[in-house]
Protein backbone atom coordinates (compact mmCIF):
# COMPACT_ATOMS: atom_id res chain seq x y z
CA UNK A 1 0.00 0.00 0.00
CA UNK A 2 2.85 2.39 0.80
CA UNK A 3 4.48 1.66 -2.55
CA UNK A 4 1.21 2.40 -4.36
CA UNK A 5 0.77 5.64 -2.45
CA UNK A 6 4.29 6.69 -3.39
CA UNK A 7 3.69 5.91 -7.05
CA UNK A 8 0.45 7.91 -7.05
CA UNK A 9 2.20 10.87 -5.47
CA UNK A 10 5.06 10.76 -8.01
CA UNK A 11 2.68 10.31 -10.96
CA UNK A 12 0.55 13.25 -9.86
CA UNK A 13 3.54 15.56 -9.41
CA UNK A 14 4.91 14.68 -12.83
CA UNK A 15 1.65 15.82 -14.40
CA UNK A 16 1.61 18.96 -12.28
CA UNK A 17 5.24 19.95 -12.84
CA UNK A 18 5.86 18.75 -16.38
CA UNK A 19 9.34 17.46 -17.29
CA UNK A 20 10.93 17.02 -13.88
CA UNK A 21 14.05 15.53 -12.32
CA UNK A 22 14.32 13.06 -9.45
CA UNK A 23 15.60 15.70 -7.01
CA UNK A 24 12.68 17.96 -7.91
CA UNK A 25 10.23 15.11 -7.35
CA UNK A 26 11.83 14.34 -4.00
CA UNK A 27 11.42 17.96 -2.97
CA UNK A 28 7.81 18.15 -4.19
CA UNK A 29 6.65 14.89 -2.59
CA UNK A 30 8.84 14.73 0.51
CA UNK A 31 9.95 11.22 -0.49
CA UNK A 32 13.56 10.06 -0.48
CA UNK A 33 15.52 9.91 -3.73
CA UNK A 34 15.78 6.07 -3.59
CA UNK A 35 11.99 5.88 -3.16
CA UNK A 36 11.55 8.23 -6.11
CA UNK A 37 13.85 6.03 -8.22
CA UNK A 38 11.83 2.90 -7.42
CA UNK A 39 8.56 4.64 -8.22
CA UNK A 40 9.91 5.96 -11.53
CA UNK A 41 11.19 2.53 -12.48
CA UNK A 42 7.79 0.94 -11.83
CA UNK A 43 5.93 3.71 -13.67
CA UNK A 44 8.35 3.42 -16.58
CA UNK A 45 7.89 -0.36 -16.89
CA UNK A 46 4.14 0.16 -16.96
CA UNK A 47 4.49 2.63 -19.84
CA UNK A 48 3.16 5.56 -17.81
CA UNK A 49 6.37 7.61 -17.56
CA UNK A 50 9.30 8.15 -19.92
CA UNK A 51 12.69 9.86 -19.95
CA UNK A 52 12.74 13.06 -21.99
CA UNK A 53 16.29 14.34 -21.88
CA UNK A 54 18.65 16.21 -19.59
CA UNK A 55 18.65 19.54 -17.82
CA UNK A 56 22.02 21.19 -17.36
CA UNK A 57 22.96 21.81 -13.73
CA UNK A 58 25.77 23.50 -11.79
CA UNK A 59 29.39 22.47 -12.36
CA UNK A 60 28.50 20.61 -15.54
CA UNK A 61 26.09 18.21 -13.85
CA UNK A 62 22.97 17.22 -15.73
CA UNK A 63 19.71 15.91 -14.33
CA UNK A 64 17.67 13.28 -16.15
CA UNK A 65 14.12 14.50 -16.78
CA UNK A 66 10.91 12.48 -16.71
CA UNK A 67 7.44 13.15 -18.07
CA UNK A 68 4.17 11.26 -18.06
CA UNK A 69 3.15 9.58 -21.31
CA UNK A 70 -0.06 11.39 -22.29
CA UNK A 71 -1.08 8.57 -24.62
CA UNK A 72 -1.01 6.05 -21.76
CA UNK A 73 -4.72 6.72 -21.31
CA UNK A 74 -7.64 8.29 -23.14
CA UNK A 75 -10.77 10.11 -22.04
CA UNK A 76 -13.90 10.32 -24.16
CA UNK A 77 -15.88 13.39 -23.05
CA UNK A 78 -19.44 13.96 -24.26
CA UNK A 79 -21.79 16.94 -23.92
CA UNK A 80 -25.36 15.98 -24.78
CA UNK A 81 -27.11 19.25 -25.53
CA UNK A 82 -30.50 20.02 -26.99
CA UNK A 83 -29.20 21.26 -30.34
CA UNK A 84 -25.74 19.65 -30.53
CA UNK A 85 -23.84 16.62 -29.35
CA UNK A 86 -20.22 17.56 -28.67
CA UNK A 87 -17.60 14.83 -28.28
CA UNK A 88 -13.86 15.08 -27.67
CA UNK A 89 -11.03 12.64 -27.12
CA UNK A 90 -8.39 13.82 -24.64
CA UNK A 91 -5.16 12.25 -23.45
CA UNK A 92 -3.98 11.87 -19.86
CA UNK A 93 -2.43 15.32 -19.93
CA UNK A 94 -5.90 16.77 -20.52
CA UNK A 95 -5.05 17.80 -24.07
CA UNK A 96 -7.96 17.52 -26.48
CA UNK A 97 -6.58 15.61 -29.45
CA UNK A 98 -9.68 15.48 -31.64
CA UNK A 99 -13.23 16.75 -31.52
CA UNK A 100 -16.56 16.70 -33.32
CA UNK A 101 -19.72 18.80 -32.90
CA UNK A 102 -22.75 17.09 -34.42
CA UNK A 103 -26.35 18.35 -34.63
CA UNK A 104 -28.61 16.32 -32.37
CA UNK A 105 -30.38 13.92 -34.68
CA UNK A 106 -32.75 12.62 -32.04
CA UNK A 107 -33.00 12.64 -28.26
CA UNK A 108 -34.61 9.25 -27.79
CA UNK A 109 -32.20 6.74 -26.25
CA UNK A 110 -31.81 4.35 -29.21
CA UNK A 111 -31.02 7.00 -31.82
CA UNK A 112 -28.84 9.07 -29.49
CA UNK A 113 -26.76 6.06 -28.48
CA UNK A 114 -26.27 5.12 -32.13
CA UNK A 115 -25.11 8.67 -32.88
CA UNK A 116 -22.68 8.69 -29.95
CA UNK A 117 -21.27 5.30 -30.95
CA UNK A 118 -20.69 6.52 -34.49
CA UNK A 119 -18.93 9.66 -33.25
CA UNK A 120 -16.80 7.70 -30.76
CA UNK A 121 -15.71 5.32 -33.54
CA UNK A 122 -14.79 8.31 -35.69
CA UNK A 123 -12.67 10.02 -33.04
CA UNK A 124 -10.87 6.93 -31.80
CA UNK A 125 -10.02 5.93 -35.38
CA UNK A 126 -8.47 9.36 -35.93
CA UNK A 127 -5.88 8.69 -33.21
CA UNK A 128 -5.36 5.05 -34.16
CA UNK A 129 -7.18 3.34 -31.30
CA UNK A 130 -10.50 1.56 -30.86
CA UNK A 131 -13.37 2.37 -28.53
CA UNK A 132 -12.23 -0.45 -26.27
CA UNK A 133 -8.93 1.41 -25.76
CA UNK A 134 -10.65 4.39 -24.12
CA UNK A 135 -9.71 4.46 -20.44
CA UNK A 136 -12.82 6.32 -19.28
CA UNK A 137 -15.85 8.02 -20.79
CA UNK A 138 -17.69 10.96 -19.21
CA UNK A 139 -21.22 11.80 -20.35
CA UNK A 140 -22.59 15.23 -19.49
CA UNK A 141 -26.39 15.22 -19.54
CA UNK A 142 -29.24 17.39 -18.32
CA UNK A 143 -31.06 16.19 -15.24
CA UNK A 144 -30.10 13.98 -12.33
CA UNK A 145 -28.67 10.49 -12.66
CA UNK A 146 -30.47 8.14 -10.27
CA UNK A 147 -27.76 5.59 -9.52
CA UNK A 148 -30.23 3.17 -7.92
CA UNK A 149 -32.60 2.91 -10.89
CA UNK A 150 -30.32 3.97 -13.76
CA UNK A 151 -32.78 6.66 -14.84
CA UNK A 152 -32.35 10.34 -15.65
CA UNK A 153 -34.74 12.53 -13.70
CA UNK A 154 -35.61 16.19 -14.37
CA UNK A 155 -34.47 16.01 -18.00
CA UNK A 156 -37.59 16.89 -20.04
CA UNK A 157 -35.48 17.54 -23.15
CA UNK A 158 -34.40 13.88 -23.20
CA UNK A 159 -37.63 11.89 -23.53
CA UNK A 160 -37.31 8.21 -22.69
CA UNK A 161 -34.27 8.61 -20.46
CA UNK A 162 -36.44 8.70 -17.35
CA UNK A 163 -37.03 4.95 -17.72
CA UNK A 164 -35.20 2.62 -15.28
CA UNK A 165 -31.94 1.34 -16.72
CA UNK A 166 -31.77 3.98 -19.47
CA UNK A 167 -28.43 5.38 -18.30
CA UNK A 168 -26.92 1.88 -18.20
CA UNK A 169 -27.20 1.82 -21.97
CA UNK A 170 -24.22 4.17 -22.22
CA UNK A 171 -22.16 0.96 -21.96
CA UNK A 172 -22.98 0.40 -25.64
CA UNK A 173 -20.95 3.52 -26.45
CA UNK A 174 -18.05 2.71 -24.15
CA UNK A 175 -17.21 -0.77 -22.92
CA UNK A 176 -14.72 0.93 -20.60
CA UNK A 177 -15.73 2.50 -17.27
CA UNK A 178 -17.91 5.57 -17.67
CA UNK A 179 -19.35 8.38 -15.57
CA UNK A 180 -22.67 10.17 -16.05
CA UNK A 181 -22.68 13.70 -14.65
CA UNK A 182 -25.08 16.63 -14.68
CA UNK A 183 -23.98 18.97 -17.45
CA UNK A 184 -24.14 22.17 -15.38
CA UNK A 185 -22.15 20.55 -12.57
CA UNK A 186 -19.50 19.68 -15.16
CA UNK A 187 -19.53 23.27 -16.39
CA UNK A 188 -18.85 24.43 -12.83
CA UNK A 189 -15.89 22.02 -12.64
CA UNK A 190 -14.67 23.38 -15.97
CA UNK A 191 -14.80 26.94 -14.64
CA UNK A 192 -13.03 25.88 -11.43
CA UNK A 193 -10.27 24.14 -13.38
CA UNK A 194 -9.74 26.30 -16.45
CA UNK A 195 -12.02 29.33 -16.23
CA UNK A 196 -13.07 32.23 -14.04
CA UNK A 197 -13.49 30.00 -10.97
CA UNK A 198 -9.81 29.14 -10.66
CA UNK A 199 -8.71 29.99 -7.16
CA UNK A 200 -12.22 31.03 -6.09
CA UNK A 201 -13.40 29.03 -3.08
CA UNK A 202 -17.10 29.87 -3.26
CA UNK A 203 -18.80 30.41 -6.60
CA UNK A 204 -21.64 29.18 -8.77
CA UNK A 205 -22.00 28.58 -12.48
CA UNK A 206 -25.51 29.63 -13.54
CA UNK A 207 -26.60 28.34 -16.92
CA UNK A 208 -29.49 29.98 -18.73
CA UNK A 209 -30.30 28.70 -22.19
CA UNK A 210 -32.87 26.22 -23.44
CA UNK A 211 -33.01 25.21 -19.77
CA UNK A 212 -31.65 26.59 -16.52
CA UNK A 213 -29.40 25.12 -13.86
CA UNK A 214 -26.64 25.91 -11.40
CA UNK A 215 -23.41 24.19 -10.39
CA UNK A 216 -22.20 25.12 -6.91
CA UNK A 217 -18.60 25.13 -5.67
CA UNK A 218 -18.17 25.48 -1.89
CA UNK A 219 -14.72 25.46 -0.28
CA UNK A 220 -13.29 24.61 -3.69
CA UNK A 221 -15.40 21.46 -4.08
CA UNK A 222 -18.48 20.70 -6.12
CA UNK A 223 -21.55 20.64 -3.88
CA UNK A 224 -24.19 18.12 -4.96
CA UNK A 225 -26.68 18.08 -2.07
CA UNK A 226 -28.26 15.13 -0.28
CA UNK A 227 -29.71 13.56 -3.45
CA UNK A 228 -27.52 15.15 -6.12
CA UNK A 229 -30.14 17.81 -6.88
CA UNK A 230 -28.37 20.91 -5.55
CA UNK A 231 -28.55 23.77 -8.04
CA UNK A 232 -31.84 22.85 -9.75
CA UNK A 233 -32.81 26.52 -9.87
CA UNK A 234 -35.35 25.92 -12.61
CA UNK A 235 -37.77 25.20 -9.75
CA UNK A 236 -37.23 28.48 -7.94
CA UNK A 237 -40.62 30.23 -7.52
CA UNK A 238 -39.65 33.11 -9.79
CA UNK A 239 -42.11 34.45 -12.33
CA UNK A 240 -45.38 33.86 -10.51
CA UNK A 241 -48.17 35.69 -12.27
CA UNK A 242 -46.42 35.54 -15.65
CA UNK A 243 -48.85 34.36 -18.37
CA UNK A 244 -46.42 31.58 -19.26
CA UNK A 245 -47.26 29.89 -15.98
CA UNK A 246 -50.56 28.82 -17.55
CA UNK A 247 -48.58 26.62 -19.96
CA UNK A 248 -49.16 22.93 -19.13
CA UNK A 249 -45.40 22.29 -19.22
CA UNK A 250 -44.62 24.98 -16.64
CA UNK A 251 -44.88 22.70 -13.62
CA UNK A 252 -42.65 20.12 -15.23
CA UNK A 253 -40.00 22.61 -16.37
CA UNK A 254 -40.11 24.74 -13.24
CA UNK A 255 -41.32 28.27 -12.73
CA UNK A 256 -38.00 30.06 -13.23
CA UNK A 257 -36.97 28.05 -16.29
CA UNK A 258 -40.36 28.60 -17.94
CA UNK A 259 -40.07 32.38 -17.83
CA UNK A 260 -36.29 32.95 -17.95
CA UNK A 261 -35.05 30.41 -20.50
CA UNK A 262 -34.59 31.24 -24.18
CA UNK A 263 -38.21 30.31 -24.89
CA UNK A 264 -39.33 32.59 -22.07
CA UNK A 265 -37.50 35.57 -23.55
CA UNK A 266 -39.09 34.99 -26.96
CA UNK A 267 -42.52 34.64 -25.35
CA UNK A 268 -42.03 37.92 -23.46
CA UNK A 269 -41.10 39.73 -26.68
CA UNK A 270 -44.13 38.30 -28.46
CA UNK A 271 -46.41 39.26 -25.58
CA UNK A 272 -45.06 42.82 -25.67
CA UNK A 273 -45.94 43.18 -29.34
CA UNK A 274 -43.15 41.59 -31.40
CA UNK A 275 -45.15 38.78 -32.97
CA UNK A 276 -42.29 37.66 -35.21
CA UNK A 277 -39.67 37.13 -32.49
CA UNK A 278 -38.10 33.69 -32.94
CA UNK A 279 -34.98 33.46 -30.74
CA UNK A 280 -33.40 34.99 -27.67
CA UNK A 281 -30.38 36.01 -29.74
CA UNK A 282 -32.66 37.94 -32.10
CA UNK A 283 -34.20 39.75 -29.13
CA UNK A 284 -30.78 40.63 -27.68
CA UNK A 285 -29.50 41.90 -31.04
CA UNK A 286 -32.58 44.07 -31.46
CA UNK A 287 -32.20 45.46 -27.94
CA UNK A 288 -28.62 46.46 -28.70
CA UNK A 289 -29.95 48.33 -31.74
CA UNK A 290 -32.41 50.24 -29.57
CA UNK A 291 -35.64 48.42 -30.41
CA UNK A 292 -38.05 49.42 -27.60
CA UNK A 293 -39.97 46.13 -27.50
CA UNK A 294 -36.73 44.11 -27.33
CA UNK A 295 -35.44 46.41 -24.60
CA UNK A 296 -38.57 45.81 -22.55
CA UNK A 297 -38.25 42.04 -23.07
CA UNK A 298 -34.69 42.23 -21.78
CA UNK A 299 -35.94 44.17 -18.75
CA UNK A 300 -38.35 41.33 -18.02
CA UNK A 301 -35.46 38.86 -18.20
CA UNK A 302 -33.32 41.06 -15.93
CA UNK A 303 -36.12 41.07 -13.36
CA UNK A 304 -36.41 37.27 -13.38
CA UNK A 305 -32.66 36.67 -13.22
CA UNK A 306 -32.13 39.27 -10.50
CA UNK A 307 -34.76 37.69 -8.26
CA UNK A 308 -33.27 34.22 -8.77
CA UNK A 309 -29.73 35.40 -8.01
CA UNK A 310 -30.97 37.34 -4.98
CA UNK A 311 -32.23 34.05 -3.54
CA UNK A 312 -28.93 32.35 -4.38
CA UNK A 313 -26.97 35.21 -2.80
CA UNK A 314 -28.99 35.17 0.41
CA UNK A 315 -28.55 31.41 0.84
CA UNK A 316 -24.98 30.79 -0.34
CA UNK A 317 -23.05 34.07 0.15
CA UNK A 318 -20.87 33.52 -2.91
CA UNK A 319 -17.82 35.40 -4.15
CA UNK A 320 -18.62 34.95 -7.83
CA UNK A 321 -21.45 33.94 -10.13
CA UNK A 322 -20.38 32.84 -13.61
CA UNK A 323 -23.14 33.27 -16.16
CA UNK A 324 -23.25 30.64 -18.89
CA UNK A 325 -25.58 28.91 -21.30
CA UNK A 326 -26.79 30.37 -24.58
CA UNK A 327 -28.74 33.22 -22.96
CA UNK A 328 -26.04 33.94 -20.39
CA UNK A 329 -23.25 34.15 -22.97
CA UNK A 330 -25.17 35.85 -25.80
CA UNK A 331 -26.93 38.38 -23.58
CA UNK A 332 -24.46 38.79 -20.73
CA UNK A 333 -23.52 42.32 -21.73
CA UNK A 334 -27.18 43.34 -21.48
CA UNK A 335 -27.97 41.43 -18.31
CA UNK A 336 -25.05 41.73 -15.89
CA UNK A 337 -25.05 45.47 -15.17
CA UNK A 338 -28.81 45.79 -14.62
CA UNK A 339 -28.92 42.53 -12.61
CA UNK A 340 -26.15 43.77 -10.31
CA UNK A 341 -28.03 47.04 -9.80
CA UNK A 342 -31.20 45.15 -8.90
CA UNK A 343 -29.34 42.88 -6.49
CA UNK A 344 -28.22 45.87 -4.43
CA UNK A 345 -31.89 46.66 -3.80
CA UNK A 346 -33.14 43.09 -3.40
CA UNK A 347 -30.69 41.85 -0.75
CA UNK A 348 -29.03 43.75 2.09
CA UNK A 349 -25.81 41.81 1.52
CA UNK A 350 -22.67 42.40 -0.48
CA UNK A 351 -23.66 40.83 -3.82
CA UNK A 352 -21.18 38.59 -5.61
CA UNK A 353 -19.51 39.80 -8.75
CA UNK A 354 -21.14 38.43 -11.89
CA UNK A 355 -19.16 37.61 -15.02
CA UNK A 356 -19.85 35.89 -18.33
CA UNK A 357 -18.13 32.53 -18.73
CA UNK A 358 -14.95 32.65 -20.79
CA UNK A 359 -15.46 28.97 -21.69
CA UNK A 360 -18.76 29.75 -23.48
CA UNK A 361 -20.27 26.63 -25.10
CA UNK A 362 -17.24 24.51 -24.15
CA UNK A 363 -17.79 24.72 -20.39
CA UNK A 364 -19.45 21.30 -20.10
CA UNK A 365 -16.85 19.56 -22.26
CA UNK A 366 -14.03 21.26 -20.38
CA UNK A 367 -15.42 20.03 -17.08
CA UNK A 368 -15.95 16.53 -18.47
CA UNK A 369 -12.30 16.40 -19.53
CA UNK A 370 -11.14 17.66 -16.11
CA UNK A 371 -13.22 15.05 -14.26
CA UNK A 372 -12.30 12.33 -16.73
CA UNK A 373 -8.56 12.93 -16.69
CA UNK A 374 -8.39 12.83 -12.89
CA UNK A 375 -10.32 9.55 -12.79
CA UNK A 376 -8.45 8.06 -15.76
CA UNK A 377 -5.06 8.63 -14.12
CA UNK A 378 -6.28 6.67 -11.12
CA UNK A 379 -7.53 3.90 -13.39
CA UNK A 380 -4.23 3.44 -15.24
CA UNK A 381 -2.42 3.32 -11.89
CA UNK A 382 -4.93 0.79 -10.56
CA UNK A 383 -4.30 -1.39 -13.61
CA UNK A 384 -0.57 -1.13 -13.07
CA UNK A 385 -0.97 -2.21 -9.45
CA UNK A 386 -3.23 -5.11 -10.43
CA UNK A 387 -0.69 -6.26 -13.02
CA UNK A 388 2.18 -6.13 -10.52
CA UNK A 389 0.27 -7.86 -7.73
Automatic annotation (TrEMBL):
Enumerate the SUPFAM superfamilies for this protein.
Actin-like ATPase domain (SSF53067), Winged helix' DNA-binding domain (SSF46785)
Q: What is any Pfam family matched here?
A: ROK
> Which Gene Ontology terms cover its molecular function?
kinase activity
Q: Which InterPro entries does the entry mention?
A: ATPase_NBD, ROK, WH-like_DNA-bd_sf, WH_DNA-bd_sf
Q: Does the record's keyword annotation contain Cell division?
A: no
What domain of life is recorded for the organism? Bacteria
* Keywords of the record: Kinase, Transferase
According to its UniProt record, which protein family does this protein belong to?
Answer: Belongs to the ROK (NagC/XylR) family.
Q: What is this protein called?
A: Sugar kinase
The record lists the organism as Asanoa iriomotensis
